[in-house]
Amino acid sequence: MLDIQLGVEAGQWPSEDALTDFSKRVLENAATFLATSEKQPFLKQPVEISLVFTDDEDIRGINAEWRGQDKPTNVLSFPAFPLTPGGKPGPMLGDIILAEETLRREALDLGKSFDDHLTHLLVHGFLHLFGYDHMTDEEAEVMEGLEIRILAELGLENPYGDDDEMTV
Predict the structure, then answer these.
(1) Does domain 2-153 sit in CATH 3.40.390.30?
(2) E strands of the chain, at which residues?
(3) N or C: which end of the chain has fewer CB within 10 A?
(4) What is the pLDDT of residue 42?
(5) Any known ligand binding at 117?
(6) How far apart are CA 30 and CA 146, in angstroms?
(7) Quick one: which H or E segment has residue 28?
(8) At a CB cut-off of 8 Å and minimum separation 6, what does 90 contact?
(9) What pTM does this model have?
(10) Nearest one of 65, 60, 14, 30 to 148, comparing CA atoms
(11) Using CA atoms, how far apart are residues 54 and 32, in angstroms rounded to an integer?
(12) Is 120 annotated as a binding residue?
């Protein structure tokens, strides 16, 4: 269902093999959930997604260039093509970029494991590629609801249950 292209650019990430296995499990679960629960159409051939694992310095530069925010963030998503929720994706879905230091710092602050927080951010970034957003309260309610349900499928608790502050 997903053809994952993965690169570790910077930071103290696990090995590429470990990240590939981890990401494939998380994202294929999210894709299956969207395909069945949200009637999200998928192509019969794999949809390609690019994952970049980097550090705060790199993501800060990307965030400054593309979003006008000169600061590190935990995850950035860049859809290959504009897509509205429920729309049909093309063969290239887009890119998800994650920053290791911010992710570790947030996981510690939230009292969550690194893997659980990484899982949440992968799901969060993946939903952005499908056109989901959280710019308005209504959009946030829909997107967070999907995150909660997908994470529950993966055995994780509601990341918003305690009104945790995150930079997603």
Answers:
(1) yes
(2) 2-8, 47-54, 75-79, 92-99
(3) N
(4) 60
(5) no
(6) 9
(7) helix 16-37
(8) 43, 47, 80, 81
(9) 0.89
(10) 30
(11) 27
(12) no
Residue 128 sits at the vertex; the CA angle it makes with 149 and 6, to the nearest 5 degrees, is 100
Residue in this structure with the two tokens 């209504």, named with its chain if needed: 138
Helical axes 114-129 vs 137-153, angle rounded to 10°: 130
Residue 65 CA to residue 58 CA, distance in Å, equals: 11
Q: What is the pLDDT of residues 48-82, one digit of tens each?
A: 999 999 999 999 999 999 998 899 999 999 999 88
Considering only CA atoms, which of 79, 89, 94 is closest in space to residue 45? 89
Q: In what order do the strands lie in the sheet with 75-79?
A: 2-8, 47-54, 92-99, 75-79
d(CA 79, CA 10): 22
Nearest of 119, 115, 117, 73 to residue 98 by alpha carbon: 73
In the numeric block, the tokens 């696990």 are attached to 14
Asked if residue 134 belongs to a known ligand binding site, the reply is: yes
Gap between the Cα atoms of 8 and 28, Å rounded: 20
Read off the amino acid at residue 13. Answer: W
Distance spanning both ends of the chain, measured CA to CA: 26
One-letter identity of residue 129: L
Residues of the chain with pLDDT under 50: 43, 163-168
3-state secondary structure of 50: strand
Please tell me what DSSP assigns to residue 100.
Answer: H
